[in-house]
Amino acid sequence: METKNIGLRGIEVADTKVSNIDGEKGKLIYRGYDILDLTKNSTFEETSYLLLHDDLPTKAQLDEFRSKLKEARFIPKQMQINMGNWRKDADPMDMLQAFVSALAGYYDEEFSSKESSYDRAINLISKTATIIASWYRIRNDLPIIDPDPSLDHAANFIYMMFGEKPDPKIEKTFDTCLILHAEHTFNASTFIARQVASTRAHMYSAASAAIGALSGELHGGANYEVMRMLLDIEDINNVESWITQRMDKGEKIMGMGHAVYKTYDPRAQVLKELSRTVAEKTGDPWYKITEKVEKTTIEEMKKRKGMDIYPNVDLYSASLYYMLKFPMDLNTPIFALSRVVGWAAHIIEEKFAEAAPKTALYRPKAVYVGKYCGPEGCEYKTLDLRK
Ligand SMILES: CC(C)(COP(=O)(O)OP(=O)(O)OC[C@H]1O[C@@H](n2cnc3c(N)ncnc32)[C@H](O)[C@@H]1OP(=O)(O)O)[C@@H](O)C(=O)NCCC(=O)NCCS
Fold first, then answer.
1. 255 Cβ closer than 6 Å to some ligand 1 atom
2. Alpha-carbon distance 62 to 47, whole Å?
3. CA pseudo-torsion sign 253, 222, 338, 279
4. CA dist list (Å): 372 to 3, 368, 377
5. What's the gap in Å between 34 CA and the centre of ligand 1?
6. From the alpha carbon of 7, which atom of ligand 1 is closest?
7. What is the pTM of this model?
8. 318 CB under 6 A from ligand 1?
């Protein structure tokens, strides 16, 4: 009998120049550059340029890219009016998916050349931030705050949310989070984006499908679930019993484990340090509780299954965003705010692959295990003959 590959693990489906993960060594590379180097030296804007293009920008290229991102920030007023018709408690990921898709209804943009696709990518990156912040303001009955062209992407998002320009240390912390989440090879949402692009659907359509994939708790939605877990644990003394009870029921601990990394996720390392630094300043208990969740889960996995497990990107980002005062249900939209860059880079690569083998419409094979009545199919019985 043919063996199926559950979840397409390890199957090579396309070439990419966008990024690479070494799961054994815990390395993540964006277009040849180590993510740890980028978090130290780069910015979200520069890293976005790098991911979309083939290399780091020159000063002139970066200046142009930054000003295009700033120009693209506004979304149509009509869109914000339409957002006001949604339930105030609607899931922000559902709202984001719908309104990213709706961008196609407001802009008649070309997507037929690689060059025009870059402009669309810029639109997508900038407007995603404005959509998330607008929804936050609308659902809380607060006036919408227009983007501020004096601010870079990270600071502008915080400003559009809360109406205050962030302190430079907070801006740097958030900018680093955006760099860390921007790209991660063929994760579920990026693969979906490429799959949709492979049908020759346009960028907003592919990105909105990716947002749907990101919302699930086994993917980006884990950072929301991690925060729910921490609030439920409440006190560091409850961590061990909480974790063991969960594991006794066969449930997974969110923010732990990864399909590719067999060692510490390099993003989690950076986020852990950022979370520690912020917690020291704010006095919040969440860093220490998260650290104990990590330690307890590692010990329990070893004891129960003889397996190693490590934190993933969602474990420490959850409490970090909480300490930065973002409402917890925006954890996953904030992931999308950054990952949209990786999606756009992959959509462009999928659509305009120059090197052979060129990509094609994805069409895996299914193994049919359903009803079988012989080669002619089953006899159709009218309703009165069915028991
Ligand atoms: C991310 C994830 C789906 C990767 O899964 P994977 O490498 O395919 O590993 P599997 O789901 O096959 O799990 C392998 C074993 O480890 C266990 N395991 C994996 N992650 C676990 C977790 N977070 N908590 C408890 N057990 C876990 C599984 O139950 C499984 O045990 P089994 O072999 O006895 O069935 C998985 O680790 C997970 O669900 N994590 C929690 C969700 C999360 O944080 N997602 C964000 C990912 S960035």
1. yes
2. 10
3. negative
4. 21, 9, 7
5. 26
6. 8
7. 0.94
8. no
Task: Indicate if ligand 1 lies below 6 Å from the C-beta of 313.
Answer: yes
Query: Does residue 180 contact residue 312 with C-beta atoms inside 8 Å?
Result: no
Bridge partner residues of 30 (DSSP): 19, 33
Looking up tokens 């973002």 gives: 326
Q: In this structure, what token pair is assigned to residue 227?
A: 């925060």
Q: Two tokens at 137?
A: 């303001």
In the numeric block, which tokens belong to residue 239? 């961590």
Tokens of 163: 């109406």
Tens digit of each residue's pLDDT, the chain (387 residues): 556 788 888 889 889 999 999 999 999 999 999 999 999 999 999 999 999 998 999 999 999 999 999 999 999 999 999 999 999 999 999 999 999 999 999 987 777 788 889 999 999 999 999 999 999 999 999 999 999 999 999 999 999 999 999 999 999 999 999 999 999 999 999 999 999 999 989 999 999 999 999 999 999 999 999 999 999 999 999 999 999 999 999 999 999 999 999 999 999 999 999 999 999 999 999 999 999 999 999 999 999 999 999 999 999 999 999 999 999 999 999 999 999 999 999 999 998 876 545 668 898 888 899 999 999 999 999 999 998
Q: How far apart are CA 358 and CA 360, in angstroms?
A: 7
For the chain, domains (ranges, CATH) are 11-219+327-351 (1.10.580.10), 222-322 (1.10.230.10)
Catalytically active residues are: 219, 258, 314
The span from the CA of 103 to the CA of 179, in Å, is 24
Cα(first)–Cα(last) distance of the chain, in Å? 34
SS3 string, 233-279, reads HCCHHHHHHHHHHHHHCCCCCCCECCCCCCCCCHHHHHHHHHHHHHH
Q: If phi over 0 gives left and psi between -120 and 50 gives alpha, with beta otherwise, what is residue 347?
A: alpha
* Tokens matching residue 355: 């090197």
Length of the chain: 387
What is the distance in A from the centroid of ligand 1 to the CA of 256? 7
Structure tokens at 385: 């003959």
Nearest to 336 by CA among 156, 203, 214, 205: 214
Give the Cα separation of 329 and 325 in Å (integer).
12
CB 49 within 8 A of CB 64: no
